Amino acid sequence: VFIPIAAMSMSFRATIKGDANDARAIVLTHRATMESESSLTREEVATIVDHAQVSRDSRNRPVASGEVVLIAPVSRKRDHTDVNVTLRGVGQQYFAMRPELKLRSGRLFESGKQELVVGAGAVSQFDGLDMGKNIRLQDGDWKVVGTFAGGNGARESEVVADALTVMSAYKLDSYNSLTVTLRSPRELAGQ
Question: pLDDT by residue (tens digit) across 155-176?
Fold first, then answer.
């Protein structure tokens, strides 16, 4: 149990370091130091994204992504050993709020469908994550419909899907984290 938790902790720190952006804030529950320790209800997420400091897009939607972080079993290409990859369930604004991440092939997942978009690092490290492949996860096969690259963190080594679809498949009631784009980071710091 310790090794997967330590690996997730190291991955979270690398992700945070590579994700550094003054306009983005990651919300975790009180005293949580990593996403796997955090649990935000749907109501808490709704309240936070309604805050005046959360940016809105041109359609007046909050620029935010409620996220769940799990692990998915895969096989490492170099030695075919069983390992885990981070499965990140994300909100619809995930890629919009991270312009450093670019779709390289295929398309983005559709909400409500068991579809995955895989980071270029994960495709290069693990078997079975190529476009069109199916991965056996909770509640059946999930199809790889796209690949993405970019950023300086660990995001490229993740498998990404629609958060609500992941939560439904895994029978989860809460998010692990919420990432928001702030309207005015300086103004918020002064509050």
Answer: 999 999 999 999 999 999 999 9
3-state SS record for 74-119: EEECCCCCEEEEEEEEECCCCCCCCCCCEEEEECCCCCCCCEEEEE
In the chain, the amino acid numbered 131 is: M
Bridge-based pairing state of the strands 115-119 and 140-149: parallel
Nearest CA to 108 out of 52, 182, 161, 174 is that of: 161
Residues present in the chain in total: 191
Tell me the per-residue pLDDT of 6-62, one tens digit each, with 9 for 90 and over: 344 444 444 444 566 788 999 999 999 999 999 999 999 999 999 999 999 999 999
CA distance 166 to 172: 8
Report DSSP state, residue 30.
T
Q: How far apart are CA 35 and CA 113, in angstroms?
A: 24
> In angstroms, rounded to a whole number, what is the distance separating the alpha carbons of residues 63 and 22?
14
Question: What gap in Å lies between CA 64 and CA 50, rounded to an integer?
Answer: 10
- Give the pTM: 0.85
